[in-house]
Write a structure and sequence with these properties.
The protein has about 350 residues and is of the alpha+beta class. Helices cover about 30% and strands about 30% of the residues. The chain is built from nine helices and 17 strands. The strands form four sheets. Strands 1, 2, 6, 7, 8, 9, 14 and 15 form an eight-stranded mixed sheet that branches. Strands 11-12-10-13 form a four-stranded antiparallel sheet, with helices on one face. Strands 3-5-4 form a three-stranded antiparallel sheet. The C terminus is likely disordered. The structure holds flavin-adenine dinucleotide. The site of flavin-adenine dinucleotide has 39 residues, from helix 1, strand 2, strand 3, strand 12 and helix 7. One of its GO terms (molecular function) is FAD binding. InterPro entries: FAD-bd, FAD/NAD-bd_sf, Geranylgeranyl_reductase. This is FAD-binding domain-containing protein.
Length: about 350
């Protein structure tokens, strides 16, 4: 029996926060897309805590409508030989992520096709899912830490994996921290704790792909209510292929994840924004998708410096972005201090393509 075949400009694989943001940006640019997710209900399956900084709300003011709580600072506890606490000042919001996802889904459905329970299985000229073939011009990897599409394209080279667990607990905070402090752990392990009065989540991660060792640590800690997560980190200055021919990746599949996963929502938003512009440029003007590599690299690179250096570099980076996108109009300010601890980040202007 031959499979049904669909034709589309953009196939987005993965309906996590990055796939949803991208579908919304593409809708605004009138780009035809199909959004698929192997889960039957990805909207209710949220991986993150939902904590975002003021910066995210500045970029996406609608987010405030979904805020459940706000905080004046966020604390992170990082396990090392000596226990360290990072407090990041500024406003933070805890979002009702299910409500936000529903909102994003509703607007995506108005413009494109959304199909849940549909899993990408192979790429063979077409994308082959569990029930049809999809012929696409651009395929987007929004599959999260597994980077599934990247693997099919044989672009997975990053061996630097982080295995992590998330521990669910109602009343963690100070008491819960002792779970970790009282036990021995080596330098390679670190943990993060997001204390949210009753919404607490704790994560402990282990650099290096040694599952057996990792599970032993968990057992030693006496932790039973947990779920495993896997992510990869991209080392600073390491170059990773984020776009190649008709492949492009957004969100966690890009590997731009720091050990604190907090910030993923903001990064997903920024990458989806850039990706939507580049995709539109590719479809309409033949601008190579590979330019996205440069945009993302410039964007994140410029942020890894302290303010005074960044100021000098900013001009050049902006010029590059402008050149790549053929841009002529300033549309927004992007700010991102989550990703660069210790430095206070000022805004950087980004440009929209003159599409
Ligand atoms: C414990 C934890 C807490 C976090 N807390 C925060 C926080 O407070 N704030 C913050 O900003 N970030 C947080 N993060 C980070 C944030 O969750 C991620 O950065 C974000 O979810 C990445 O979204 P994504 O869309 O790239 O990937 P995902 O959300 O993983 O979505 C990927 C989707 O792709 C689908 N998929 C995979 N393979 C296929 C396939 N073959 N076919 C079809 N579909 C497929 C999956 O079903 C999934 O729905 C946290 C992460 C963790 C693990």
């Amino acid at each position: 029996m031959s499979l049904e075949t669909s034709d589309v400009d953009v196939l987005i694989v993965g309906s996590g926060v990055s796939g949803l943001f991208l579908s919304n940006f593409l809708s605004k640019l009138n780009v035809d897309f199909i959004l698929i997710d192997s889960l039957k209900d990805p909207i209710n399956r949220i991986r993150d805590t939902g904590l975002v900084s003021e910066n995210f709300v500045n970029l996406f003011p609608k987010a405030k409508d979904f805020a459940i709580k706000s905080y004046r600072s966020a604390n992170f506890y990082l396990g090392k030989d000596s226990f360290e606490v990072f407090a990041r000042r500024g406003n933070y919001y805890l979002l009702d992520r299910v409500a936000l996802n529903k909102h994003l889904l509703e607007s995506a459905e108005k413009y494109g096709e959304v199909s849940f329970g549909e899993r990408l299985e192979r790429i063979n000229g077409y994308a082959i899912t569990n029930y049809r073939k999809i012929r696409y011009k651009v395929i987007v990897d929004a599959t999260g830490p597994y980077s599934y599409v990247r693997k099919l394209y044989d672009l997975e080279s990053n061996k630097d994996f982080v295995i992590g667990i998330e521990i669910h607990t109602e009343d963690l905070l100070a008491d819960g921290i002792h779970i970790f402090l009282d036990k021995k752990y080596s330098k390679e392990h670190f943990l993060w704790i997001v204390g949210l009065d009753g919404y607490s989540k704790v994560g402990i991660m282990d650099k290096g792909l040694n599952m057996r060792k990792f599970l032993k640590i968990i057992r030693d800690f006496g932790i039973y209510d947990y779920s495993l997560i896997y992510s990869h980190v991209i080392k600073r200055r390491e170059e990773k292929v984020l776009a190649y021919k008709n492949f492009i990746s957004v969100g966690e599949s890009t590997g731009y994840l720091k050990k604190f996963s907090l910030g993923g929502i903001l990064v997903s938003y920024i990458q989806a924004y850039f990706a939507s512009l580049v995709i539109k440029g590719y479809l309409e003007k033949g601008i190579p998708l590979e330019r996205y590599n440069k945009i993302i690299k410039d964007y994140f690179y410029v942020r890894s410096f302290p303010d005074f250096v960044r100021k000098a570099m900013k001009k050049k980076a902006i010029f590059n972005i402008l050149k790549v996108l053929n841009a002529n109009k300033i549309v927004s300010y992007f700010d991102l201090d989550f990703y660069i601890p210790f430095y206070r980040i000022k805004s950087i202007r980004v440009f929209e393509s003159d599409l």
